[in-house]
C-alpha cells in the first residue's frame, strides 16, 4: 500500500482549472521555445483568459521596447502622486509563466492584476505608436502591408469579464497554494516562531485538504454561474472538482489517512461523523479500515507507558496564516477536550489553545 502525493493530485486539479480538457495533449503541442509561434499563440488563446494573458505577457517580456514602455508608464504614474510612499515605488515587470506549471500561472495572474491599469495603457500606447509608424504620409491611411501587433489585435484583448475571471482564479488558486504549503513538511512537531509548537506535512490533514478544496470548488461553481461570458471558467471548475474528487475517492486504497485522523486526539471519530454526516456508509467503512489496522498491526503489541513529563504542554498556534489552517481549526471538536480531560488536568477555559498531541 502506498500513499498518494497530495501535491501531485493538486497539480492535476489545478491544471484542469486552468486549461480544461486534455491538458497532456496541450502540453505536448507546446515547443518550449521562448517565442510563440503562430500555432502556439492560437493554442493558448483557445484556453480563455489565462491563455490570452499568457500571450500578452510573452509578447511584452520578449520585447525590450514593450518592457521599457511598461516601466515608463508606471514611473510616470508614480511620479504624479502626492503620496511619498507611492512616489518611492519602483516599477515591476510582468511575470512570465513556466508553460503549464500552475503555481507560475498563479504568480503571473497576480502580477498582471496589480499591473492591469498599466497594461491597458501599454496596449493603447503601443497601438498608437504602431499606427503612427505605419501611416502613409501621402494619404494618411495605414499601409496595406502593415501588420498589427499581436497584443493589439481585438481577439487578443482581455475583456472586463476576462479580468473578472482572472481575479477569481487568483483567489481560487490561492486556496490551492495554501493547502500545498501547509502540507509540505516532514510532520515533525517543532517549536515555531512565536513559541507555538506544531508541524507541517501532517498526514491527518490530507483528508481535510481534500474536504477544504472540494468545499471551495462547490462555492465557486455557484459563483461562476453568475459571471457573464465565462464558459471556460464554469467548465474548468467542474473539471478541477472532478479531478480532485477522483483521487479523494481513492484514499480508501490505504488506511493511513483514516487512521491518522481518527487517532488524532483533537479530531477522532467526531470529525468523520460531523463532516460525513450525510454519508454514514463512508464513516462505517473508515471505522472498519482502522479496526483492521488495529487488529493486524497493533493489538498484539505490549503497551508501554512513557514517564510523565512535568513540563507544561506547549500551546498550539494561535494565529492562522491561511484559510486552510483556519478550516482545520474549525473542524477540531470540543469533544476532543473532554476525551483527554480524563488523563490530565486542563484549564477550565475551553478556548485555551491546547496542544492535544503534546498532551497525549
From TrEMBL:
It comes from the Eukaryota. It comes from Fusarium poae. InterPro entries: RNaseH-like_sf. This is HAT C-terminal dimerisation domain-containing protein.
Amino acid at each position: 500500500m502506498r500513499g498518494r502525493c497530495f501535491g501531485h493530485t493538486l497539480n492535476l486539479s489545478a491544471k484542469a482549472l486552468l486549461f480544461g480538457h486534455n491538458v497532456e495533449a496541450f502540453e505536448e503541442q507546446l515547443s518550449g521555445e521562448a517565442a510563440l509561434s503562430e500555432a502556439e499563440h492560437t493554442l493558448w488563446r483557445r484556453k480563455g483568459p489565462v491563455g490570452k494573458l499568457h500571450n500578452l505577457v510573452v509578447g511584452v517580456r520578449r520585447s525590450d521596447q514593450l518592457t521599457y514602455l511598461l516601466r515608463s508608464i508606471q514611473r510616470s504614474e508614480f511620479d504624479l502622486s502626492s503620496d511619498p510612499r507611492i512616489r518611492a515605488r519602483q516599477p515591476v515587470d510582468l511575470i512570465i509563466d513556466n508553460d503549464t506549471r500552475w503555481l507560475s500561472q498563479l504568480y503571473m495572474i497576480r502580477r498582471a492584476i496589480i499591473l492591469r491599469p498599466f497594461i491597458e495603457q501599454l496596449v493603447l500606447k503601443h497601438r498608437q505608436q504602431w499606427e503612427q509608424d505605419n501611416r502613409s504620409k501621402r494619404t494618411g491611411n495605414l499601409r496595406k502591408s502593415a501588420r498589427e501587433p499581436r497584443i493589439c489585435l481585438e481577439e487578443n484583448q482581455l475583456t472586463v469579464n476576462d479580468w473578472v475571471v482572472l481575479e477569481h482564479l487568483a483567489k481560487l488558486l490561492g486556496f490551492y497554494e495554501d493547502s500545498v504549503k501547509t502540507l509540505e513538511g516532514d510532520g515533525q512537531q517543532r517549536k515555531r516562531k512565536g513559541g507555538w509548537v506544531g508541524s507541517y506535512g501532517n498526514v491527518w490533514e490530507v483528508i481535510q485538504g481534500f474536504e477544504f478544496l472540494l468545499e471551495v470548488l462547490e462555492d465557486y461553481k455557484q459563483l461562476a454561474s453568475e459571471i457573464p461570458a465565462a464558459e471556460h471558467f464554469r467548465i474548468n471548475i467542474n473539471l478541477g472538482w472532478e479531478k480532485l474528487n477522483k483521487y479523494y475517492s481513492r484514499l480508501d486504497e490505504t488506511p493511513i489517512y483514516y487512521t491518522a485522523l481518527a487517532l488524532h486526539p483533537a479530531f477522532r471519530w467526531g470529525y468523520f461523523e460531523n463532516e460525513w454526516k450525510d454519508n454514514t456508509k463512508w464513516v462505517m467503512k473508515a471505522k472498519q479500515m482502522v479496526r483492521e489496522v488495529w487488529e493486524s498491526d497493533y493489538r498484539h503489541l505490549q503497551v508501554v507507558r512513557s514517564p510523565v513529563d512535568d513540563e507544561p504542554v506547549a500551546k498550539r498556534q494561535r494565529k492562522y496564516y491561511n484559510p486552510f489552517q483556519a478550516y482545520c481549526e474549525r473542524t477540531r471538536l470540543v469533544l476532543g477536550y473532554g476525551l483527554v480531560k480524563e488523563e490530565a488536568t486542563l484549564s477550565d477555559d475551553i478556548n485555551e489553545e491546547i496542544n492535544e498531541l503534546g498532551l497525549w
